[in-house]
């Protein structure tokens, strides 16, 4: 049959030129469809004599097979190309970090409380609590501060109102976390190791004082606890808290009614270029008060001082938060300014722990 080569060239070119599946389908219908060109030629075979039909039939079948194969190959090729295109355009890097969505912020004071709780928990300290409205016995007397003691005046105490005619001594807003020492010992006895973070109140207001602020109390009582244990614990705490390789502490003899001997503790630091660096430099900054718990305090809390002894300390949380996170003004802590909170706050779901890092 003449013209088969032309036909073949025509359809193979059309197949090659088809750029999508529907164009390809049109080519298939035109060539091999029921009314297609090849099918029409097949229909003429019946009118041929047997010899010619045999030859023409074979050539037509071969042509049909060839066009069919080309169609299939092109179809597969188009599908591959389409897939490649999708893979290229719909590409997504699943290893990218998620977009953090802030669920509020954690106040630096809360963050620091969590951090110091994690550090002291690692040293075997449990967390103890007490009320913020405290009787003056817990806040003063039991801590060896009798009514006539000058320390009572120094504390700038807020007194709670009593009904007229009620002559019992007034309750106070606790002026320090030290009364929690008494409550913890009365509750659990000795040996005991606790910290007590919480709010305290004093009538004072300037750039470094607010009427409400935060302290953490520490207490460790056992048969042979000494100032050496106190020193190690505080050094270990400061190293972990300020996240520096080493710190240096200086113990200055001091006086607190509830400890004997007493020491105020300073940390070595530098303020070079207005930036605080802990653990280096030639400046010292006071960070806490401490000492060996006074026998009278143990006795008041029902612990026998002939059998038990130990240390206590009290530290300002707001102050160490300011130091660690470079926050200049204490008053801003309690103004609830959202811009301040967003700037100095912490992500809500990042709980500080020692293995994971305190202040990621
Ligand atoms: N309670 C003291 C204050 O608020 C701080 C303090 C000093 C606590 C010495 C202690 C301590 O436990 O041993 O000023």
TrEMBL record:
Binds 2 magnesium ions per tetramer. GO terms for molecular function: phenylalanine-tRNA ligase activity. It is an enzyme of class 6 (ligase). Its EC number is 6.1.1.20. It is found in: Cytoplasm. Mg(2+) binds at residue 260. Keywords: Aminoacyl-tRNA synthetase, ATP-binding, Cytoplasm, Ligase, Magnesium, Metal-binding, Nucleotide-binding, Protein biosynthesis. Its cofactor is Mg(2+). It catalyses: tRNA(Phe) + L-phenylalanine + ATP = L-phenylalanyl-tRNA(Phe) + AMP + diphosphate + H(+). It holds the Pfam family tRNA-synt_2d. Residues 110-335 form the Aminoacyl-transfer RNA synthetases class-II family profile domain. HAMAP family: Phe_tRNA_synth_alpha1 (MF_00281). PANTHER family: PHENYLALANINE--TRNA LIGASE, MITOCHONDRIAL (PTHR11538:SF41), PHENYLALANYL-TRNA SYNTHETASE (PTHR11538). Tetramer of two alpha and two beta subunits. Belongs to the class-II aminoacyl-tRNA synthetase family. Phe-tRNA synthetase alpha subunit type 1 subfamily. This is Phenylalanine--tRNA ligase alpha subunit. The gene is pheS.
